[in-house]
Every structure is written in C-alpha cells, then in structure tokens.
Amino acid sequence: MVRAEQVVAEERAAAGPRSGGRARASGGGRAKGRPPGRRPPVALLAAFILPALALYTVFIIYPLFSALQYSLFTWEGTRQAGFAGLDNFTRLFSGVYAERFWRAFGHNGLFFLGTMAVQTTLGLAFAVLLHRSRFGKRFLQTAYTLPYLVSPIVVGYLWSLMLSPQFGAVNEALRAVGLDALAQPWTGDPQLALPTLILVNTWQWIGFPMLLFSAALAGIPEEYAEAARTDGASGARVFWHVTLPLLLPAIGIVSVLTFIGNMNVLDLVYAMQGSQGAPAGATDVLGLLFYRTAFQNPDLNAIGQSSALAVVMFVFIFGVSIVATRVLRRAEERLR
Amino acid sequence: MTTTLESPAPPPAAASAPPRPRRARRGARELLGGAAVQLLLWGYAAVALAPLLLMLISSLRPEAELRQDPLGLPVRPALENYTTAWTQANFSGYFMNSVVVTVSSILLGTSVSVLAAYALARFRFFGDALLTAFFMAGLMIPIRLGVVPVFYLLDNLGLLDSQLGLICVYAASGVPFSVFVLTAFFRQLPVELEEAARIDGAGEFRVFGRIMLPLVRPALATVMLFQFIDLWNDFFFPLVLVDREHYTLPVGLTTFFTEYGLNQSLLYAGLVITTAPLVVLFLIATRQIMTGLTAGIGR
C-alpha cells in the first residue's frame, strides 16, 4: 500500500534543484533541520547501512531490473532461449494479448474514474461535514476507517457472501424493506459486476481520503472562511472559492494515491470474481492479467510475456505518478 | 457553528426592520440542515460497521439458521464454527504461519531500517544524498511486478516454499517506508545529545542503542504497526512463493473458500479469525493509526 507520506517524500525527492534551492534559502544547509553530521569510519558506516541496502537491493531492486531483462528474451519454460528484442512487447499489443490487455486496461481506467467519482467525492464530503460538527467526530472517523484495516481478501469474500443472490444479506435486507426490484445478482451480472467492485472498494478505503482531507482542512486557518463570510459570501460560495482551492494539494495527492492503488488492484477482484475476472472477463484488470500471464499460462514463453506486461505496467504507473506529482507541485507553486 | 452564524456584521441601515424573522427562519433551516447532516454521517457509520458486525454475528450462528434468515441474531452463540475452522480447516496452521512470518518480517525489516536511517540522518559521507534517494525510490515502486524474478531468485537460493524466503521479501518491502519515517525522526534529534554521550566515553553503537534508539520509539511503533497491517493482510506473495503448508491466513482463505464454499457460517468464522488480531491491534493503537495515515499532510 502507498501512503501519503510516501508521495510527499517522492515529491520532495523529485523536486530536484528547484526546491533544494528553496530549502537552502529558507533553512540553510542541504535538508531542512539536518544537523551538520560527522564523517564516520567506513567500517562503521557499512555496519549501519549494508544490511538494509543488501536486503532492499537483492529482493526489491534487483528483481525489477531482472524483469526488464527477462522481457527482452524468448523463454522456453524456465530457460532463456535467445534475445528477442521487443518481440514480447509487440506481441503484447497484437492479437489476443492486445484484446485482453486493452480490456483489462479499460477496466482499470473505469475503476479509477469510478473511485474518484464516488470515494474521493464522498470522502471530501464527509471530511467537510465532520470538520464542522463536534458531536461524535472521533467515533465517526474511526468507524469510517475501520474497514481499511481488513485484508482486501477478507473484504472481497465478506461482500461476496453478503451479495450472494439467494442467501446474501444484502438482497435479503432489500426484500425485507420491499425493494425486491433492487435485489440483483450483483457480482454475476456483467453490467453490475464492475460498479459493485468499485463500491465495495470504496467501502474499504473511504476512511483514507476522509482522513487526508480532514488533516488538510485542519491546516486551513479559520480566518479565511470567516473573512469571506464577513464579506457576505454564502456557505456554498465560501466552500467553492475559499476552501476548495486550498484543498487542491490534498486532492492532488489523493488522486495520485488512488491512481496507484487502482492500477495495482488485484486482491479484491481475485476474492470476489476469481482469477479470470468473472463473469466472462467483465472484471478482468491488469493485476489479474499479469498474474495469469505469469502463473496460469500454458504458453512456453510465459516468463517473457508476463515480464513484458510487468514492464509496461511499471512504466505506465510509475511514469504517470511522477508526472502527475510534478504537475501538481507546479500548480501548487503557482497558486501560492 | 453558532459563532460563525452570528459573525456577519449586522448591516447597519437595514438592521431595524427585517432581522428578527429572517434570523429565525435561517435558524430553523440551519437546524434542519444540521439534522440532515447528522443523519447522513451516522447513516454512513452504519454502512461502514454493519458488514463487520454481520460477519461476527453470522460466524456465531449454525449454518441451518443462517440459511433460513441471513439477517437474524444468534439464538445461542455457537462456537462450533470456530472449532471446526481452527482444527479441520487448518486455521491453526495458517494462523501460526501468519504470526511467524509477520512478526519475523517486521523485526528483521525494522532492525535493518533503523540502522540505515540512523546513518543516513546523522552521518555525512560520500554519496549520502544519492543513497537516500535510492531508498526513497522504493516508496512508489509496485513491487508485485517483480514477482517472477523474485520467484526464481528464491528458487536459486533454495528459499522457495519456505517461511524464510517470504520473510526476506516482506522485510525488504518495508525498508523504504521505514527508512523514510525513521530518518525524518532521527534528523529531529539534537546533536548535543550524542556529543555529550561521546564526551562521556560512549562508543558509536552505545550512543545509538542507549541514547538515540529510545528517543525514536514512537516512530518505531508507527513503522511496525503499518508493516503489520500490510503484511498480515497480504495474500499475493504467499500465493506465489510458498506451498500450502506455509500458507498465511489470507491465502489460506482462498483454499478454504473453494473447499467449504457451501458452509457460510464456517466461512464467516474463518474471516473473523483472519481479522480479529487487526481489530485488537486497532483498539490498542487507534490514535497512532489515525494520525500515522495522514502524516505529512496539513500542519
């Protein structure tokens, strides 16, 4: 999972010379608050740094570069049969692979848009409403956040039990209040399956944007809104013209995090719709496609093919995140 | 709320005639709006909590009862589902695997991270900034995409289908986040502390272990807590990297669901067993989790 600090850190790391200059101008020294530091003997340094460096390099960084290398070869089972150039990539974008790729890609896109529309909007609404209310604030925030703790696999199984057409609690509850028409085969209908997944995913994650927006709201001085109100602005106008612009950085961070999370979504779909993205691939996503290409693939070249897919996904997710973070930072600087 | 309502300066000229009825009307509307807001907020709290409550209640009911009425309360709490899941469906095994893997990974990952973070925060050396950036790069990497090479790496090391292999991958996956948080904390500590200790003749490791480490305890707790949530809940790496004997709870659930798919109350019990440790943890550390989630925003 990716958290807010991570993006903030990435932002700082990616900021490069410009924000470095800013830090020097304001704080002095390279990084803010950094003590002068000592120059330790090499052996001591190694003792402190090498364990983490080795673990991280061997199990995280090296495999990623290996994946890149794997993707450039033709494989016969677990044996590299020869240099393939970009063959694995061209195959990914042609024929039946392309069909599956773009279908899964489209589902990820819908997943992202749906989540932004429902989860982010609701999260913002709850944060704003909670910001002004005193009564039970802590309890409500905790209640909204509790599902975040639960494993996506558990969430998926729990909801598929509850959404089961015959014995499920959801349809039973709908029938009990006379809404029989709404009792649908939620996970079995190709039209409903993806929206259902988005809602279940929202149920799990809504506390996250809500907490981020709450923290951002708490950081906005009350005087701004008060000044606008004194000038006669209505509550809605104050929100649109004062509060919302000040929340833009937080909205940006939430969007990037939602994008990363949604592009990597796998567990929930696996639990609710299986590794094929049932019904009939209506909920297939890139994560599942990658898993199947790598581990449920009769193709002799499974390793080459899945590695090419991994590289494409990596470049896309990482690339968009970096670009989006930079654009957001620029926009933020302009607003300031 | 009341203060903001009254804060608009009263328009001096028109103040004589209209204000009273207008204020009353506005007050009523405000009250109604407030009630609607409360209804919405508490209504959603019900939506957030009901499924978890239903999961707990259903796990305590016999299967036949559950079939008849999926929404009822347990007539008498039945613990059979739990004993069946624990013994027959091997949840005892999954649970132990989860505990061993999660705890070891956190201990290993946090230990190496806190050492590196200390050095990155307090020492000056050639390439320190580059090294920090190298660790930070891991924050945004979707590490699952490297799973095929990880699989063959573990295979070559003879660590496939073992807890140790899984622990190495998990511990490594926590390094960027832990290093990031702990470095930030170490940087905030005053230099005078370690200087004083060193003047008193304490060695490098003594300064670190006795003086600096205890001071970053809150950060250590945060880092370990979030690793616990991530690792306890992960299902992808065990699915790929270990055999059934070493399955952790989330992967165990997948086989459990295919085998016992028709016994709903039993399934609910399995879900509760998987989730319970996290809820306990949450109740102990609510504050830390809620603030940790938003660290770096606002303020």
Structural commentary:
The complex is a heterodimer of chains A (336) and B (299). Chain A has 336 residues and is mainly alpha-helical. Chain A has a single domain, classed as Orthogonal Bundle (MetI-like fold). In chain A, 74% of the residues lie in helices and 3% in strands. Chain A has a two-stranded antiparallel ribbon with strand order 1-2. In chain A, strand 1 and strand 2 form a beta hairpin. The longest helix of chain A has 38 residues, at 95-132. Chain A is globular. Chain A starts with a helix and ends with a helix. Residues 9-35 of chain A have low confidence and may be disordered. Chain B is an all-alpha fold and 299 residues long. Chain B has a domain at 91-259: MetI-like (MetI-like fold), CATH 1.10.3720.10. Chain B has helices at residues 2-6, 19-59, 63-68, 80-87, 91-122, 128-137, 147-157, 163-188, 191-199, 204-215, 217-233, 236-241, 249-259, 264-284, 286-293. In chain B, helix 2 (19-59) packs across helix 14 (264-284), helix 4 (80-87) crosses helix 14 and helix 5 (91-122) runs parallel beside helix 8. The longest helix of chain B is centred in the first third of the chain and has 41 residues, at 19-59. The model of chain B is unreliable at 1-20 (pLDDT under 50). At the A-B interface, helix 1, helix 2, helix 4, helix 5 and helix 6 of A face helix 2, helix 5, helix 6, helix 7 and helix 8 of B. Chain A: Residues 1-37 are annotated as: Disordered. Chain A: The chain crosses the membrane at residues 42-65, 110-130, 142-162, 192-217, 238-260, 308-328. Chain A: This is Carbohydrate ABC transporter membrane protein 1 (CUT1 family). Chain A: Keywords: Cell membrane, Membrane, Transmembrane, Transmembrane helix, Transport. Chain A: It comes from Allonocardiopsis opalescens. Chain B: Its main location: membrane.
Mean pLDDT of chain A: 87
- Which CATH-level-2 architecture of chain A? Orthogonal Bundle
* N-to-C SSE string of chain A, H for helix and E for strand: HHEEHHHHHHHHHHHH
- Could you tell me the radius of gyration of chain B in angstroms? 27 Å
Beta content of chain B: under 5%
DSSP helical segment count of chain A? 14
| Quaternary assembly | heterodimer
Give me the CATH superfamily of the domain at 91-259 in chain B: MetI-like
What's the CATH first level of chain A? Answer: Mainly Alpha
Low-confidence stretches of chain B: 1-20
Q: Strand share of the residues of chain A? A: under 5%
Percentage of residues assigned to helices of chain B: over 70%
**Strands in their spatial order, largest beta sheet of chain A:** 1-2
Biased composition (Low complexity) (chain A): 14-25
Subcellular location (chain A): Cell membrane
Keywords (chain A): Cell membrane, Membrane, Transmembrane, Transmembrane helix, Transport
Domain ABC transmembrane type-1 (chain A): 105-324
